[in-house]
Amino acid sequence: MAFVNENYFKLSPSYLFAEISRRVDAFKKANPQKSVVRCGIGDVTEPLPQACIEALHKAVDEMAARETFRGYGPDHGYDFLRHAIAEEYRARGMSIEDDEIFVSDGSKCDCANFLDILGTGNRILMPDPVYPVYADTNVMAGNTDVSFLDGTLENGFVPAPPKEKPADLIYLCFPNNPTGAVATREQLAAWVDYARRNNALILFDAAYEAFIRTPGIPHSIFEIPGAETCAVEMRSFSKNGGFTGLRCGFCVVPKAAMGRRKDGKAEAIHPLWSRRQSTKFNGVSYPVQRAAEAIYSAKGKAQVSGLTDFYMENARLLGSALKANGWEFIGGVDAPYLWVKCIAGKTSWDMFSYLLEQAGVVTTPGSGFGAKGEGYFRLSVFNSRANIEDVCSRFADLAKA
Ligand SMILES: *Cc1c(COP(=O)(O)O)cnc(C)c1O
């Protein structure tokens, strides 16, 4: 008998975006004359930066000649990319070494795979609402002690560490998906302090750091002194460089970051992650790593700024339209998402149907991100300018109707 992992049966059956697609398709079928604009899924829309395209082409040509062809690359990433990434951290005053960078095919996998090197019985803490991957991967791994910290308008969707409750593993994501909230230095310092007091580990998801515009907001958990002993950071080229279809990200695992054996003995996380990756991962393709390296070139940096500025201008336009029409929301300042309060009395899915039917706008129901997401919906600014302008006028028409 091949026994299956029965934890999978504990997962909620429908993945959020599959349900959205199902409902949108049904609506389109029933209303073929109505136009629909998607403001739901958090996927980029603009093409890759030119610097990345050039690097890709060049790398493909290298693969075409015997002298420059490359087979398997190093498990943890090519030195040229690990060095470029670590240099960027060092340029921002953080002492990250090249071999503390682990190149991967994206942060979703890193978030999920990290549970491989953690033991059973961890008390896990994560905010609610939250990126569904954190909770679902813990269900799959059979972790049952998962507590949620309530995000609310009052705490700006940045929950503070609990006063009494100790935890072993903490998920944080800032700028946040889905709320667009960012954590201040003081707020992150409180989490690092909490983690150190509890010998806990923070998994910090910084997929959206490139969208931070407010001066003083930390871009990395490692801007907080002491974080190198209690945190790992996941980053991705998906959102800044538009690599969602190309696939590349990385995990920063400081050598000082510690976990514990059951008897309390401290053990460095770095060798465990290194071993995990060497055994289970064969690296990211050479052309893609060259494309990622190009993001750190002067041209690449300028082009990535151009891309993120473009999306943040979308955010500004959408935010103004919402404000002008009386919607209450947060986000859209340092993140590509706006987190909007539903009309009083409507659930997130009611609101989804209402906006689809009345305005032809596809949103993401907040309840798909956790119980505390109920009563909200997420708008993504990953869209063409024309579509964003269209959505803005649809919200204006809705107000007039
Ligand atoms: C998009 C996103 C990522 C990036 O995922 P990739 O696998 O690198 O594409 C990571 N975390 C969050 C919260 C995201 O929204």
What does this structure look like?
There is one protein chain. The protein has helices spanning 16-30, 50-63, 79-91, 107-113, 132-140, 185-197, 270-280, 286-294, 298-324, 348-359, 385-400, and strands at residues 37-38, 101-104, 124-128, 146-150, 169-173, 201-205, 231-236, 249-252, 258-260, 266-268, 329-331, 337-341, 361-362, 364-365, 376-380. The protein is of the alpha/beta class and 401 residues long. It folds into two domains: 14-43 and 299-400, Aspartate Aminotransferase, domain 1; 50-296, Aspartate Aminotransferase, domain 2, CATH 3.40.640.10. The strands form four sheets. A seven-stranded mixed beta sheet has the order 2-8-7-6-5-3-4, with helices on both faces. Strand 11 and strand 12 (337-341) form a beta hairpin. Helix 2 (50-63) packs antiparallel against helix 8 (286-294), helix 3 (79-91) runs parallel beside helix 8 and helix 9 (298-324) packs parallel to helix 11. The termini are far apart. The model has no long low-confidence stretch (mean pLDDT 96). It binds pyridoxal-5'-phosphate. Pyridoxal-5'-phosphate binds at residues 42, 106-108, 131, 173, 177, 205, 207, 236, 238-239, 244, 249.
Strand order in the sheet with the most strands: 2-8-7-6-5-3-4
Total count of domains: 2
Oligomer: single chain
Rg from Cα: 22 Å
Share of β-strand residues:
5-15%
Average pLDDT, rounded to a whole number, is 96
Superfamily (CATH H level) name of the largest domain: Type I PLP-dependent aspartate aminotransferase-like (Major domain)
